[in-house]
Write a structure and sequence with these properties.
Family: Belongs to the acyl-CoA dehydrogenase family.
Cofactor: FAD
Largest sheet: 4 strands, mixed
Protein name: Acyl-CoA dehydrogenase
Keywords: FAD, Flavoprotein, Oxidoreductase
Number of helices: 12
Bound molecules: flavin-adenine dinucleotide
Organism: Anaerobacillus alkaliphilus
Number of strands: 8
Shape: globular
């Protein structure tokens, strides 16, 4: 893959866009798109070349997710989480775990998901409270994860759990077929991102060997900070920048196509021109910040963290603001759902509450910029 953004745009036009409306209307996971993501090699974007993957990193992750989100926010979000989970294994997995999971991704088109959030700790997902008891050769788990995107469709779920070392956590891989794992599928009724299948995962006496732990005992925090945070937060920047760009496309095309009886267009009205310009400015700024943040993260720049946090905050706010303006431009047709604008706005609302929420990130940004500790 040489031009990941363009190849992802082309892929999305053929294999994602045709299903976007249906997965929202039927609240259906984008299975067809995921099958093709496997067939066309996008699921292995981050798998190292020696394991048969493309060996790409943060910049290409951001580009692929951005391009997919310009066609479907839900598919982009599910794909983004797969990449984040995969990257934990790339950076911290044992050789045995890498061989097992990467071959399933590369050869069988399997994908991964993140089962991190809990009902209790909510947006502070890095403080897991499920029980993990070390029993000889096994660790036994009990508890519930609250919102697991791609539930039952993904083959592997990354689970954060307390470590035997006081105050530390571990990042585990739970295979889908593990005994004691069940999903409450009927629970998902999201305002937007309706194809996500983000439902609770119940963990009842699940017993796993240490080989399913990613990295050293107690290394979960370090993985959350150095891998999950950059890939997840930048990825969310891409999801919501792409959603905002999609809104621009819909609103600007509609404003040109909508004709009045005298033959003039909606786009001939100055106020509408200003709205279209504002949507474009917000969407383009979010995209630019996100791609710049991804480059800074990939290069290990000193200000990478601040850029990544800022990009994700700006992108999720931009998507909501672009959506509100696009609804105005779309008038009665947008309100009556003849345009996809209302779906895009519903999708955009997930941006401000997905963990770590925009409110939490605003605090973290201030801390990062003033040299203070971030949890
Ligand atoms: C579409 C979608 C998909 C998801 N997919 C997944 C997934 O795949 N895996 C997963 O693990 N989770 C997932 N989640 C869960 C999500 O990321 C959050 O963890 C969850 O929504 C938090 O829920 P809560 O209401 O309990 O948050 P709460 O902790 O109750 O927070 C509610 C609000 O309070 C405010 N707040 C809380 N604490 C602070 C603070 N310290 N400072 C400032 N403000 C604060 C924020 O405004 C926050 O939005 C998903 C959520 C959505 C919407």
């Amino acid at each position: 893959m040489n031009n990941v953004y363009q190849e992802s745009k082309d892929f999305a036009a053929t294999y994602i866009l045709p299903y976007t409306e249906m997965i929202d209307q039927e609240s259906k996971f984008p299975e067809e798109a995921f099958k093709e993501l496997g067939n066309k090699g996008f699921l292995k974007l981050l798998v190292p070349e020696e394991f048969g993957g493309h060996g790409k990193g943060l910049v290409e992750h951001a580009e692929a997710v951005l391009a997919f989100a310009e066609s479907c926010s839900t598919t982009a979000l599910c794909y983004m989480m797969h990449n984040v989970a995969l990257m934990c294994i790339v950076t911290h997995g044992s050789e045995e775990l890498k061989r097992k999971i990467f071959s399933d991704v590369v050869e069988n088109g399997k994908f991964l998901a993140l089962a991190y959030s809990e009902f209790g700790t909510g947006t502070h997902f890095y403080n897991p409270e499920i029980q993990a008891q070390f029993n000889g050769d096994y660790t036994k788990f009990n508890g519930t994860k609250s919102m697991v995107t791609s539930a039952t469709y993904a083959s592997y779920y990354l689970v954060l759990a307390p470590s035997v070392e006081e105050g530390k956590i571990n990042n585990w891989v739970f295979p889908l077929e593990t005994e004691g794992l069940s999903f409450e599928m009927s629970n998902w009724n999201g305002l937007g991102m309706r194809g996500n299948s983000s439902c609770p995962m119940h963990i009842e006496n699940v017993a796993l060997e240490a080989s399913y732990r990613i990295g050293e005992e107690g290394s979960g925090q370090e993985q959350v900070f150095n891998v999950v945070a950059p890939f997840f937060i930048t990825g969310l920047g891409s999801v919501y920048s792409g959603t905002a760009l999609h809104m621009f496309d819909v609103a600007s095309n509609y404003s040109v196509d909508r004709k009045y009886p005298d033959g003039s267009s909606l786009s001939n009205i100055e106020t509408v021109q200003v709205h279209i310009g504002t949507i474009y400015k917000n969407a383009a700024a979010a995209r630019a910040l996100t791609l710049d943040a991804a480059t800074a993260g990939a290069n290990g720049d000193a200000d990478a963290l601040a850029k990544i946090l800022a990009a994700r905050i700006v992108a999720s706010e931009a998507a909501i603001e672009c959506g509100k303006l696009a609804m105005r431009v779309g008038g009665g047709k947008a309100y009556n759902k003849a345009l996809p604008t209302e779906r895009l706005l519903r999708d955009a609302y997930a941006g401000q509450i997905m963990a770590p929420s925009a409110d939490v990130l605003n605090v973290w940004l201030g801390k990062a910029l003033t040299g203070q500790m971030i949890p």
